[in-house]
Amino acid sequence: MTGGRDRYRFLHRTVFQCPAIDNHCHPLLLGAHCDAFPFEGLISEAHGDALEDSVNTIACLRASKELASLFGLQKGTNWDEIKAHRRKLDYSDLCQLSFQGTNINCLLLDDGLGGVETMAGNYQWHDQFTENKSKRIVRIETVAETIIESIFSRAKPNLGQEPGPLEPKEFEIRLGQILEEEAQHPDVAGFKSVVCYRTGLDVSSIHGGADFENAFILMYESYLPGTPVRLQDKALNDFVVRLALTTAGRYKKPVQFHTGLGDNDLNINLATPSLLQPLIKAYPETTFVLLHAAYPFTREAGYLTSVYHNVYLDWGEIFPMVSRRGQEAALKQVLELCPTNKILWSSDGHWWPESFYLGINQARSALFNVLQQLIEDDDLSEVQAAKVAQNTLFHNANRLYNLNLAFPTEMEIK
């Protein structure tokens, strides 16, 4: 990259100094819980025994080098040595070190991840790491599950007790009310759905009233007081998504969808964003954000952004979970069809502060390498490439989420 840096100094300065809006991430663990999850989750979506294999990926080997540099360790420091070193650091210092110099300007935090309430900082706690205040992305399935649990626990408070009356309509009314309240909250930037994990992205655009009511009642009949509720019936999940899309469209809040890359709780055959096409057509007033570059379905996602005005594409999570050349290949596929005013960056940072450090630095590296290639192919001028970089890292998210954040005047490109 050294040669490219010397040849395209303006582009290099733009890519590596432009403030970045992280349009999709999750809260950090608090110091008391900083070892609650295996650190290998930083570089892999695997769980259980499969997570042990993650340390042998190219992504992990690269991350080891970059974290060694962050911590001032010798070149060649291995993964276990990095883990040992970080455990010795004061956690507050580790957080500050990981964000220092990243120029991440604002965080849009999905705080519906399991474990957030008890082990992680709230969205406002994260303001200490960025120039601008953090915003929330409301996970709709978490909202729905909380409502259902409150309804079920009231109607069936104890095992062996005769269940009380149950009215599915109450759930619909309460969910609609809370989604409207969230949509109007000044700190809420948008909504997020993980229906991809639950029943897949082939969400029906047609409301099946009887199916919804039957699913709700069956869920209630199997409910055990005191146990967490999990939405995993297609009729219920589809209903929640449709109601959220309607509310989001009314209040002009984007809806993010997990697509592609995920853990083994996900059916990869139901994770392609192409399955969302009927829903995208049915809700033209609602903006869809396809997360994680839809990897490995990146071209499908790019196609959807090119033919539907209400579809945007995020290219997060592949940093640092995919190799360098894999990241660049995915970004090239994004740029094959996707309008450059509809591309968004995110870290998908979660739990560990280093996920934000690796997320932004690897993204900037891939962005520079791909854009300089486009210049050399005579597809873009250097100024045009720099504009693409600024749009991707800052302007597109600033506009889409109505953040109204200031951009450095000295970096503006006329």
From TrEMBL:
This is Amidohydrolase 2. Keywords: Hydrolase. PANTHER family: AMIDOHYDROLASE 2 FAMILY PROTEIN (PTHR43383:SF2), NODULIN 6 (PTHR43383). InterPro entries: Amidohydro-rel (IPR006680), Metal_Hydrolase (IPR032466). The keyword Hydrolase applies. It comes from the Eukaryota. Pfam families: Amidohydro_2. It comes from Coprinopsis marcescibilis (Agaric fungus). GO terms for molecular function: hydrolase activity. Residues 242-403 form the Amidohydrolase-related domain.
